[in-house]
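agent> Task received from the user: take the single chain below, predict its 3D structure, and emit structure tokens. No templates, no multimer pairing.
agent> Plan: (1) validate residues, (2) run structure prediction, (3) serialize to tokens, (4) report one or two observations.
agent> Step 1 OK, no nonstandard residues flagged.
tool_call: predict_structure(input=
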Amino acid sequence: MRRIFIQFYLTLVISFIGAIALAGAIYGQVVDKVSDRYLNDIFRATVSLLQTTLSEEPVDQWNARLDTLGLSLPYPIKVEPLDTYELSADNRAALADGDIVMLAETYQFLQRVPETGYMLTLGPVDYLYFLHEIQSFDYLMLGLAALFLGVPAFAWMRPLWRQLMHLKRVARQLGAGNLDARASLPDDSGVAELGSTINTMADNLQSLIQSRRELLDAVSHELRTPIARLRYRLAMLEDGVADDAREAMDRDISSIDRMIEELLLYSRLDQGHDLLHPERLTLWPWLNEVLARHGEDFPQVCYTLRPTPASLHDQQAEVDGFYLERALSNLLRNAARYGQGEVAVTLGCDGQHWWIEVEDNGPGIPEAERERVFEPFVRLDHSRNRRTGGYGLGLAIVRRIMGWHGGQASVQASALGGACFVLRWPVTLPRLHSLVPSVRGDEADEAT
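)
tool_result: status=success, residues=448
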């Protein structure tokens, strides 16, 4: 807020000073014209009066005579030789012609006494000093006026800023997947129309995504019934079907069944149907058990749990054991499929976050694809073969599960030469009812 307020305030102050300067310039022009005409009239009248009064006196005695007249004029009057002041050629010519000449530096007026080598001098005129000089008090008042402009500017901007920050948070939540987020602004707000537009957009998005989810759920559920019938009828087939054909059919049915299961799981996680049920879990023995089970499923793969500080062996973490195992199992199966027979798992904690790393010695993942692999239904070209299989949902499910833990899933290069997937989540889980996967906080909003 500070940056925007300073920009707005400086713009306001500069505009204010510019308006004052323009008004002052216009006022000065008008006053100068009126003052010049007024002073010229006074000067001519004064000269005419003096010449009439002193016409019978010698010019060189006019100064003495002026002292005895007791004239009450707001400026001094005296008679001086024509060469008293250094004048420009134009001013000397004007003075010789009998015109009134003004000395701008001293605000004095000169006029030649006809047919003499003297001139009548009026001034300095203090009134002109006042008109043409801005005193320190004026600067002070101008500065105070500019300072006080900040009070109404701040009073106007602060509620608007809070409303804009509210819209920013709503937009972030919508972008993070929380489609229930809505803007709530007073009717007289300057950005009420923007808030209403955001709400309308969110309603439309929610409706479209809900329709997609309902369709996905309906199709997935409906497919399970014919798949179950196929499996039942396959079991009832007579011996006329060859064993290899029966096994192939059973594998295909199992593959479709697993795909539907992943679709349903991803849909539930995407909708937030299954919020986490955290428990205190000792991760070290739990990891050993999970790796042992995967070692039985993939005997050709060497699973290794890297040494961990003894202080972590008995330390408990707050997690949902069911979903964390599902995320870890997806990574272990991927490592077994794409690796070259070696998988290493590392457990770590820095006091604020837990993490589990799964590394393999496979071909790895190009850096440009490392974010894309977590998107649903995305499979890299080298994975599209019968040996590896997959439906492109496993890593999307992993990231969604870690999002519900308030953490994240990422991938980087492995020291083994392949990919290193990292599951990372906070030691203290956020409040579960407010969790939205991949949400980023707004800590810096008020300080921006």
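agent> Step 4: summary for the user.
Confidence is low (pLDDT under 50) at residues 382-388, 432-448.
agent> Done.
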